[in-house]
Design a protein that fits this description.
The chain is an alpha+beta fold and 442 residues long. Helix content is 29%, strand content 12%.
């Protein structure tokens, strides 16, 4: 079997060859995630928070058909009768198991049919035309959408339990000792947030705009399991003064006493379950599977706070010497295994201190990969943002209870994260691969 080329070695994001490579890589990943599962596993719902896996897979194909075949290619619908079944806004996750969706075999055939036509569309599309196709934007949107659902499917597989179906982890680099809350000073002043030039940036990342921030200090690395365990051992989940009113009410209603899958062992330590396998919690790895309320409560207990979204982005990407925002903490070059834990190379965060080569201009580490990081900010539009190419990606979520997460996780593909990328979820959610770091005022 021939190993497919690394898409990042094929050419720039804006080239047709690179787009083909990225489309191929995302589809190979989707199918590999689900190939070990039988029909019963693919069609059952493991949690009302998640879709049946076969729904996610067909939704990926339907989204590709809508945008590449119909919107760009002008091709008549292949299966118009299924559009409503895979509309994420018409069909809440809790009811998706009741829908007459395509079975696994029909889903795979549908995906193959869409993809062959999509490649034909790409071949005859000029990538210097209208905004939808300029620099391959809509193709990049489809690639990122598929990788986002791949990460969602990994969250479903984590909730699934049962024997592990994922391939063995590739080795991760060793970490190094980092003192608790080893702060980095981020000097105040003017910086740029967002982008107006990144070819694959999505609507909520645009446009670039100036922000003024006071000085603050930020954790060099994410909060670790060992630090979070101190919060647990100090009775943090039993003390309402560390929690917001809504957070405390949710804690009482949910009965949560630790991060998702954590259990105390006979020796007084902690174990966790990762894709059906129980193991000791790794003390030096970033804490994962915590909701916003848990992250916020820890920060209060520690006498600190969650960073704002603007603070996070400045610490991640702003270069105070060049006076510009970098695409990644280290610069413009694509992520590599030496810089960040991305792309499902291992199904876990790396220990802190493992990626000094991925540090930002300020010396903050592991801001891309490992765990999504909760910020204190609600999800709102930037000044001058406009919905493109559809309202339902971002606009309908602005101004609600959603909290912003940044930086991606080990499950995030490199094409689906960058300094400006914005993720969001409700403050109760923790099935996602979420952690945090803390800040303090100067």
């Amino acid at each position: 079997m021939t190993t497919p080329p690394d898409p990042s070695q094929v050419g720039p994001l804006t080239s047709a060859d690179r787009i083909v490579a990225e489309l191929t890589a995302s589809r190979d990943r989707s199918l590999a995630l689900l190939d070990p599962l039988d029909e019963a596993e693919l069609t059952r719902q493991v949690s009302p928070l998640m879709s049946p896996l076969v729904w996610d897979l067909a939704h990926i194909g339907n989204y590709e058909e809508l945008w590449l075949l119909r919107a760009v290619g002008g091709i008549e619908p292949l299966r118009p009768e299924i559009d409503c079944l895979y509309d994420a806004f018409e069909q809440p996750r809790a009811i998706r198991p009741t829908l007459p969706v395509l079975g696994p075999a029909d889903t795979r055939a549908y995906l193959a049919g869409v993809r062959s036509r999509a490649l034909d569309v790409l071949e005859r599309t000029a990538l210097d035309g209208a905004p939808l196709v300029r620099d391959g934007f809509v193709f990049g949107m489809v690639v990122q959408h598929e990788h986002m659902h791949d990460e969602t499917m990994l969250a479903t597989l984590q909730l699934r339990g049962g024997p592990r179906t994922l391939p063995p982890d590739q080795p991760l680099p060793s970490g190094r000792a980092v003192p608790p809350h080893d702060d980095v000073l981020i000097a105040g002043g003017s910086s740029v947030q967002g982008t107006s030039t990144d070819p694959w940036a999505l609507d909520n990342e645009r446009p670039a705009h100036r922000v003024e921030l006071p000085s603050f200090r930020l954790d060099r690395v994410p909060v670790t399991n060992a630090l979070f365990a101190r919060f647990l051992d100090a009775g943090g989940y039993a003390e309402p003064r560390h929690w917001t009113g809504r957070g405390w009410a949710h804690l009482q209603e949910s009965g949560r006493v630790a991060p998702m899958t954590w259990k105390s062992d006979a020796a007084g330590g902690w174990t966790c379950t990762r894709f059906g396998e129980t193991e000791a919690v790794e003390p030096d790895a970033p804490v994962s599977h915590v909701c916003w309320y848990e992250a916020d409560a820890y920060a209060r207990w520690a006498g600190r706070r969650l960073p704002t979204e603007a603070e996070w982005e400045k610490a991640c990407g702003w270069d105070p010497v060049a006076q510009r925002l970098r695409r990644y903490p280290w610069g413009e070059d694509d992520p590599t295994p030496e810089r960040a834990n991305l792309g499902q190379r291992a199904t876990r965060p790396a220990p802190v201190g493992a990626y000094p080569a991925g540090a930002s201009a300020y010396g903050v580490e592991q801001m891309i990969g490992d765990v999504w990081e909760w910020t204190s900010s609600g999800f709102d539009a930037w000044p001058g943002t406009r919905a493109f190419p559809y309202r339902e990606y971002s606009e309908v979520f602005y101004g609600g209870d959603y909290r912003v997460l940044r930086g991606g996780s080990w499950a995030t593909h490199p094409t689906a994260v960058r300094t400006t990328f914005r993720n969001w979820d409700l403050p109760v959610r923790r099935q996602i691969f979420s952690g945090f770091r803390t800040a303090v005022d100067v």
